[in-house]
Design brief:
Length: about 170
């Protein structure tokens, strides 16, 4: 194995480790001046229902991060209330081009996170971000923190500030 190949393999391994995703989220929160703390669970928080059960909140308070691919190939992150099914036509209208589902490889490449742990910040590349307006109706919400067993609490206003996302109706 060449030194370049070894370095690339080490970088990929580090990027895939649970701690690196969580650490990246913690660093992004601190860099943005957030006091939010990452909470890790022994059980999975991969789905909105799993996260709500672990946390003890409603499914609607889960800010689930869903990555789509635009027709031009760019990543689009939709942060939706856990009870909402994203209407792709509404997101496409707000974006100005069609979107489709992104596969796991695209999600990891563009965000640096595996599906089930995609955080609303700390991404590997710049994403176009939309925030579900239904999340604005809650005092506190919870988002994934870079790993399928980690979340953090924040307010809807903080979510908007941290992501710069455009608020739209997604359902």
């Amino acid at each position: 194995m060449t030194s370049d190949t070894a370095a690339a393999a080490a970088a990929m391994s580090a990027a895939a480790s649970p701690a690196s995703g969580i650490d990246r989220v913690r660093a992004a929160l601190r860099a943005a001046g957030s006091a939010s703390e990452v909470v890790q669970f022994a059980t999975t928080t991969r789905t909105a229902a799993d996260a709500a059960a672990a946390i003890g909140c409603t499914v609607a308070q889960i800010a689930k991060s869903l990555v789509f691919r635009s027709a031009s190939g760019e990543p689009v992150l939709v942060i939706a209330s856990g009870i909402n099914r994203v209407d792709e036509a509404k997101v496409a209208a707000a974006l100005g081009e069609p979107i489709g589902k992104a596969d796991a490889g695209f999600v990891r490449e563009r965000t640096g996170f595996a599906i089930g742990g995609v955080a609303p910040l700390g991404h590997a590349t710049k994403l176009r971000i939309f925030v579900d307006r239904d999340l604005l109706g809650y005092e506190e919400i919870w988002a994934a923190a870079g790993h399928p067993h980690a979340v953090f609490r924040l307010t809807p206003a903080e979510l908007r500030r941290l992501t710069g996302g455009t608020v739209i109706a997604v359902a």
